[in-house]
């Protein structure tokens, strides 16, 4: 067995077996007009499943109107969207892969992508734990306790709907500065009630959210939580400065019922803290005992936000870098993390997993921004 074969050994999240260790990273594509993903979106995911990817994590799907990014993303709270998602699930299952929707609430943080004024929805005001952005500016209204309960109920309803439709689990978007992260981070959570305070107290929203999703969808329905240090508008931001701070935040969250953590970094191999080589996914696995998914620049020369500027539209192009395949395999082999998520390289290469499996990485295509203009 060569080192790369470990990528094609089965993975497990809770009770769910996944055919291999390769996940498609969640990527907002904005092709769901009216909030409803059409047959083109279903075919796009089915192509990645047919291309050998074991677990598809969909683009972020909004759990309610206040939390919906303003572009044409799937609005998971609409009945017609749920009906359309059945076709996505069926297509991916037919191709032999597993699929989870990413459940998304932006909180007070609007998305950095450009919004076509034609698509801006009439929606309620943005809401967050303290109404504040990481910069200290006001970004929206403060959620009161009733608002918190209603938001948690919206996530729970979405979890239940995901199960009914046939999804294999859910991923909750708790990363990049969106609503759950806004509760966890001291700069955006200044509350003095039971939802704010020290690191452990700031976890209450996420703990209740996970418990509510488990109660609604059933204890055996897998929940992945995506987390990160960085925020969409601040790559230097850190939720935890030390491993013990990371533990204070994520141990209670793991105990609430998370089945796996998806640890979002821009470069999968980088150590998370000084004085240790462990990556963020490595630390999270060590602290929580749960499986972890790593991500960031897999088979790409440039990270996701490399050289970000108005002119480049925020998302970096990149040539392929094939040596990453062995590096990822060796991390998995030594138990640093369990799965790897592939983002832009899987937009450029629907057959990414098949090419890796057949040792044809020299055929990997570069990621180009123009690929975002179509759903190939
Ligand atoms: C077009 C695009 C859209 C994205 N949308 C989301 C999203 O909806 N949810 C999310 O958690 N991350 C999103 N991301 C981040 C990716 O999931 C991934 O973490 C990032 O691209 C780094 O992986 P890569 O270097 O393999 O591309 C997006 C990335 C891209 C390129």
Automatic annotation (TrEMBL):
Cited Pfam families: Oxidored_FMN
UniProt keyword annotations, A-Z: Plasmid
MF terms (GO), sorted A to Z: FMN binding; oxidoreductase activity
UniProt-listed InterPro entries: Aldolase_TIM (IPR013785), OxRdtase_FMN_N (IPR001155), Oye-like (IPR045247)
SUPFAM superfamilies, per database record: FMN-linked oxidoreductases
One GO CC term on file: cytosol
Stretches with biased composition (Polar residues): 111-121
Keyword 4Fe-4S: no
Designated name of the protein: 12-oxophytodienoate reductase
Biological source species: Novosphingobium resinovorum
């Amino acid at each position: 067995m060569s080192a790369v074969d470990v990528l094609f050994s089965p993975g497990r999240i809770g009770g769910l077996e996944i055919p291999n260790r390769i996940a498609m990273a969640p990527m907002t594509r904005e092709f769901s007009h009216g909030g409803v993903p059409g047959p083109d979106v279903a075919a796009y995911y089915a192509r990645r499943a047919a291309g050998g990817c074991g677990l598809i994590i969909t683009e972020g799907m909004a759990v309610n109107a206040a939390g919906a990014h303003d572009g044409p993303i799937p609005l998971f709270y609409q009945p017609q969207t749920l009906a359309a998602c059945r076709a996505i699930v069926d297509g991916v299952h037919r191709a032999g892969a597993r699929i989870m929707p990413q459940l998304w609430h932006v909180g007070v943080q609007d998305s950095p992508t450009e919004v076509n004024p034609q698509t801006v929805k009439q929606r309620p005001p943005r809401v967050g734990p303290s109404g504040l952005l990481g910069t200290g500016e006001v970004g929206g209204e403060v959620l009161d306790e009733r608002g918190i309960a209603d938001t948690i109920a919206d996530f729970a309803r979405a979890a239940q709907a995901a199960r009914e439709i046939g999804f294999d689990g859910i991923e909750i978007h708790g990363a990049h500065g969106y609503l759950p992260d806004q509760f966890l981070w001291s700069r955006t959570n200044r509350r003095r009630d039971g939802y704010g305070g020290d690191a452990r107290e700031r976890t209450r929203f996420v703990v209740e959210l996970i418990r509510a999703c488990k109660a609604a969808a059933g204890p055996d329905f897998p929940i992945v939580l995506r987390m990160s240090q960085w925020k969409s508008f601040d790559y230097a931001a850190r939720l935890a400065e030390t491993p013990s701070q990371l533990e204070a935040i994520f141990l209670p969250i793991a105990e609430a019922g998370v089945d796996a953590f998806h640890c979002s970094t821009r470069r999968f191999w980088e150590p998370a803290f000084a004085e240790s080589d462990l990556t963020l996914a490595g630390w999270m696995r060590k602290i929580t005992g749960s499986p972890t998914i790593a991500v960031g620049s897999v088979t790409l020369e440039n990270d996701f936000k490399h050289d970000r500027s108005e002119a480049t539209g925020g998302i970096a192009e990149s040539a392929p870098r094939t040596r990453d395949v062995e590096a990822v395999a060796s991390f998995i082999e030594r138990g640093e993390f369990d799965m790897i998520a592939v983002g832009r390289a899987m937009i450029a290469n629907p057959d990414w997993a098949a090419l890796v499996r057949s040792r044809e990485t020299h055929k990997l295509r570069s990621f180009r921004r123009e690929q975002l203009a179509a759903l190939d």
